Amino acid sequence: MLAMNYRGPLRVRIDEKPMPRILHPEDAIVRVTRSCICGSDLHLYNGSVPDTRPGMTFGHEFTGVVVEIGGDVQKLKVGDHVLVPFNIACGRCVFCQQELYGNCHESNPQATAVGGIFGYSHTGGGHEGGQAEYVRVPYADVGPTVIPDDMDPDDAVLLTDVVPTGYQAAEMGGIQKGDTVVVFGAGPVGIMAARCAWLFGAGRVIVIDELDYRLDFVRRYAPCEAYNFRSMGDPVLFLKKATDWLGADVCIDAVGAEAAGNAMQTLLGRKLFMQGGSATALHWAINSVRKGGVLSIVGVYGPIGTLVPIGNVVNKGITIRANQASVKRLLPRLIEHVRSGVLRPRELITHRIPLEHVSDAYRIFSAKLNHCIKPVLIPPAK
Questions:
Q1: Phi, psi angles (nearest 5°) of residue 214
Q2: How far apart are CA 205 and CA 194, in angstroms?
Q3: How far apart are CA 316 and CA 131, in angstroms?
Q4: What does the pLDDT average to over 317-329?
Q5: Which of 287, 304, 322 is the last residue of a domain?
Q6: For residues 143 and 180, what is the distance between their CA atoms, to the nearest angstrom?
Q7: 297 SS3 class
Q8: Does residue 296 sit in the same domain as residue 338?
């Protein structure tokens, strides 16, 4: 089969790889119909995440048709068209029982934090991802969800990560009616977080980014106020002025390890890899939220230490909430939001690229070419 093959930082290509096999009676094999490239895949692509091994196939956002099931699979049948959450969850460990599916203990037992993730380095369990023609899906009775007949596959694939992550970012903010919410990052997750903030009662939503085309997009899609930090001097001072010098009620970090805007953070976190990413957006969020406010973090950082102003967190009495999105918990509600038109995920998709051109897709997305917001890989032309 054809599959994306990671060869080292900034080097991916399409290769022939062996077909996946059933390795456990709870497995399923899925023929991929849609697979996204995520902003967090760029952390892997750029070499920011430890233990990303050459030869790995990325891709944690995908849909597909079930072509084979293990002997213990009861809820799926061959021919089902499913969306597959990026979390690999067993459904029965102590964390899954609390609906913390992103922290499953069985799918990534050697980790102390995150559970298994498709195609996300060996820190996520070393599971092969969905930027391929076929993929093995463990615990097939837990994560995969049959796509409703009336749902567009382009909507469905964004329910595997982007929509639930953006929604949970807003949910973790504990947004109260009338709150001012600031979202750092106008990538797909930040755009969705801004849109979902209104669903929780926000009175004002502000988005900060450095790319004008993304800011224009989020103004239309969310809608919201959107500003380029390159034109505002000190973003923290700007946001304090914009909020009567109190700060925002809720700040959301939807950027993570690739943040720009601070030379020291960029050097330590993106060039020398001496910390778990550039924490510039996280600094701005901590210093922009009001005293007693809430900071929600969904941006991805590496597992090693990261320089953050923890004293400001303590002295301001900030509540921090962070995690990988618990996709399975959120899916029933989000499917209804999509079917009713409350959310329109497929409008985020700007590029549809055949799998065999995956290297071009990464180059376009990484370099922010052609006003790319969200690229989707489609099955190869035969």
A1: -70, -40
A2: 7
A3: 43
A4: 97
A5: 322
A6: 34
A7: strand
A8: no
What's the confidence (pLDDT) of residue 111? 78
- 185 touches 253 (CB < 8 A): yes
Shared domain check, 309 and 263: yes
Q: Is this structure's pTM higher than 0.85?
A: yes
49/149 same-domain check: yes
Residue 332 and residue 233 in one domain: no
Q: What is the per-residue pLDDT for 349?
A: 98
* Cα(159)–Cα(166) distance, integer angstroms: 10
Residues 251, 353 within the same domain: no
Tell me: the pLDDT tens digits for 53-82? 999 999 999 999 999 999 999 999 999 999
What stretch of H or E contains 40?
Answer: helix 39-45
Do 209 and 251 sit in the same domain of this protein?
A: yes
Token pair listed for 321 = 């909430």
Closest CA to 202 of 217, 182, 186: 182
- 185 with 48, same domain: the answer is no
pLDDT digit string (tens) for 8-33? 999 999 999 999 999 999 999 999 99
Residue 211: both structure tokens together: 């790319």
Q: Helix or strand or coil: residue 82?
A: strand
Q: Within 10 A of 238 (CB to CB), how many other CB atoms are there?
A: 18
In which domain, by residue range, is 169 found? Answer: 163-322
Residue 266's pLDDT band (cuts 50, 70, 90): confident
Q: What is the CATH number of the domain that holds 36?
A: 3.90.180.10
Distance between first and last Cα of the chain: 12
pLDDT greater at residue 345 or residue 306: 345
**Structural domains counted in the chain:** 2
CATH number of 255's domain: 3.40.50.720
Percent of the chain with pLDDT over 90: 86
Half-sphere exposure of 32 (CA within 13 A, CB side): 31
Whole-number Å distance between alpha carbons of 208 and 289: 14
